[in-house]
Amino acid sequence: MDDQETNPAAPTALVTGSTRGIGKAIADMLRQRGVHVLTHGSGDGPTGRAQLSADLDDPAAPAQLWADALAAVRAAGRTRIDILINNAGLFDAAPIDLSDIAWLDAWDRTLRINLSSAAQLSRLAVRHWQEGGNAGGRLVNIASRAAYRGDSPDHWHYAAAKSGLVAMGKTIARHYAGDGILAYTVCPGFVDTAMVGDGANASDAADLARDIPLGRVARPEEIARIAAFCALDAPESMTGAVIDANGASFVR
Ligand code: NAD
Q1: Is 142's C-beta closer than 6 angstroms to any atom of ligand 1?
Q2: Cβ 89 under 6 angstroms from ligand 1
Q3: In the structure, how many helices (H) and strands (E) does the chain have?
Q4: Of the residues 44, 117, 157, 195, which should be mutated to test ligand 1's pocket, given the most ligand atoms within 8 Å of the CB?
Q5: How far apart are CA 92 and CA 245, in angstroms?
């Protein structure tokens, strides 16, 4: 069901993982900017209302999500998806003393949800944009500071997946700019969302803030402003850029 009243000439965006946290902030901000937004959630748990649901742990889900997104676009009297924001992700721990198989399963799950599903959606988006009469498109990947700094001993897989996302975005930027396809990557440090907040208490929050010269974690709206800039305003010549947002906790 599409209850958005957007200008038919306004671009359409698919934002994965937009039921809460950073993805929801991005979807809200794009809507405020007049974009026709398709929201997505994993389809389980109290994730709020998303137009499209797909569990990205299922290798078949990205293709189905893309097909569902195109069907929703057409049902809204539109023809194309102009912007893809790969935001969905999880931050599950995989301590090294897990059993071999449990540790490998954790790697597979994190790589599938945080990297392979974004790659599958990006491939479908690039092909869609190549077919679109050179109108091009914009890809925005939400990676992480972990791509450059590494992460905790329980999160080798998370850091590796986010590094992969950075490298994938650069590759797409380098090879498809001639088709008008632009790719930007955002690398947040800690952001005030359920991903960080689950199980955190006041002293955890103080510990996090101590490591950040700005003195606080980022707000989802700050990351959304960067993502919206990349999706709508960033100069074409900026394609391939990776933008940090970590309160100077990791400057490079
Ligand atoms: P969050 O947990 O609040 O939201 C994650 C979103 O991803 C949700 O909408 C959820 O439905 C979706 N998702 C998770 N597993 C999924 C699955 N199997 N299938 C489909 N959707 C799934 O997290 P957030 O903090 O808003 O994170 C958003 C993105 O930002 C993630 O890619 C995360 O890695 C990245 N990030 C977050 C932080 C942080 O500190 N919060 C820091 C750096 C990067």
Answers
A1: yes
A2: yes
A3: 9, 7
A4: 195
A5: 22
* Integer Cα distance of 102 and 82 in angstroms: 39
- pLDDT(48) > 90: no
Read off the pLDDT of residues 107-147 as tens digits, 9 standing for 90 and up.
Answer: 999 999 999 999 999 999 999 999 967 689 999 999 999 99
* Class of 3-245 in CATH: alpha beta
Q: Tell whether ligand 1 has an atom less than 6 A from the beta carbon of residue 196.
A: yes
H helix or E strand, kind and range, residue 148: helix 146-149
- Mean pLDDT for all residues in the chain: 93
User: How far, in Å, is the centroid of ligand 1 from the Cα of 213?
Assistant: 24
| 90 ligand 1 Cβ < 6 A | yes
Give me 189's structure tokens.
């440090």
The rounded Å distance from CA 157 to ligand 1 centre is 15
Domain boundaries, the chain: 3-245
Give the number of other CB atoms < 10 A from CB of residue 183. Answer: 27
* Selection from 37, 35, 55 nearest residue 45 by Cα: 55
**Is pLDDT above 60 for 46?**
no
Sign of the CA dihedral with 96 first, then 100, 106, and 107 last: positive
174: confidence class by pLDDT, cuts 50, 70, 90? very high
